[in-house]
Amino acid sequence: MTRDVPAVLPVPGQAPRYGTDPVLDAWLLHFMTENNLEHSIDPEKNATPEQLRFMVSLTPEQIYIPCTDAMFGHLLTEQADPEVVAEYAARLARIDGLIDAFVAEEYTRRKIRTLCELKYRQALVKPTLIPSRLGKRLNTIFLTQSGLDDPYRERRRAANRRAFAFIQGEAFRTMLHACPSDLPGCRSIPELRHVLDVLELKRLFAMSAMPEVWEGDGACPGNEALEAALANFPKDFEKLQAMLDPRRGSKLKILYLADSAGGIMFDLLAIRTLLRMGHRVILVFKEGFYFDVPTIWDVDGDPILETALAGAHFLTDPRVSKNDLLQVIRENPLTVISDGTRERLNLYRVSVTFARAWKEADLIVAKGEYNHRRLILTSNQFTRDVAAFRRVPGDGLCFDFKARAPGARSFTEADITAKAEEIIMGMRQARAAGRTVMFYSAVIGSIPGQTKVAIELVTAFVAHLRQKLAGISIINPAEHFEEGMDADDLMFMWEKVQRSGLIDVWRFQTHFDIEKSFELLGRQVPPVWAGKDATFSTGCTKEMRIALSMQQRHREMQIIGPDPEKFFRRREYGVGRFCDAGIDCG
Questions:
Q1: Considering the chain, what is the average pLDDT of its residues?
Q2: Which of 2, 29, 46, 324 has the most beta carbons within 10 angstroms of its beta carbon?
Q3: Alpha helical stretches, state H, 168-262
Q4: Which residues constitute the domain of residue 226?
């Protein structure tokens, strides 16, 4: 039996999409399931489409592939392409090196090597696995079968020691602090300060990509090497330089993706420069062993790294809320998180905290070849500007800038707060005019596929209440929705409104309200809405908790609707979604 060939192949340079050819759709689903990246198949491990859109700009039918366009093209053929075979072989060779170095017992060594070779040969039969996914599987086999949790822990500590020793030396200070021979004339002290900050950043970025400092004997490059790196500094750096200029009037939140031990010591110095310029940084490590890449646990037992990270806030909650994340960023110039994985950057597998940090950042700074491949060598566009730099043998430091997707809209904390304050001002004016303020909480997106109907229902019912109730100012959340805002944004905004202390009556939607709404629209109640009320909304559940806490402070506030106890059977609302995390929103 021969395999059907898709009549329509993905367009080179564009993210693949569903809906153009049934055979291609089937192949894409096969590809996603083979790589264990499909959310509907494994929702506990893979990001929801909504969480993915925090980071990747996708149209409804587009699909994100976590590899380069070139690699995806090779895998599409399911043939043993030389580049794919070479990548697979490199992953196997890397694991072979671990087995030889860290597994002493011959029986165990042979068992692990044979199992890895079986997986490798299986992948070669019909090459569909992304090479990094094969690498993750082989790495997992090694860790579980050898009983080791992190064989490179001491290696990374040694790299940090060597880098730290170099940083303490006179050669480093000379390289970093030497006055440039052709310092451009400056018109003001702030301009000169920015020029010097940028020069320091350039030097630190260049040195952070000189692995000879921390590999082997830790040979120290001379000032000539640094001057050569700066002389041919990539042109794209100017885009980052313009963004970082504090004279623009806004300070950035920067998500910084680390690359390797040793180099992290220079990254931290660069981060301190960014902090001095007034920006805030979220530094990203791995959750567990991924060779030389620093993990969030490396600070335990590595006094050099611990000292370099003094004053940093470690955020280890993998599912932090938007409110809590923003509070942490406000209170801490430098925050350290993990991406929730022990593999190359894979946006399907990152933690909720990482996805939210990406969404709240203004800029992604990504270091190293692997991050460059995942973020630059792909046709996917992202929701934030990406600045990626790496060392290329023979070419020195390379720097690439990928602007955020043209349609990607970012609602900053200030934007959302301004919208909340506008609503609060209206509430104050209503009270000053002697009117009672009522807030109406209703099901909006918690019933899959019914969001449009839900908005129609709440709009019709609030209009009915406004006609029936005199002297009442009713807040209908559906009237304040703005295109591009997701559940995180809305819940953040509404909580500010709800905690203002200006609500006199908080009404939660009942099943009688829903029946009346359909009657007002001249329609019968369909089965999917029968018996529904606000207790079926996870957003309303969170709002009931807020209502009860506000009632403790404002005893005169009335709560109308279903019994509060009926609300608390619901789970947290899905990340970036308008529905319960346990419901498939389609």
A1: 87
A2: 46
A3: 170-177, 189-208, 223-231, 237-244
A4: 153-402
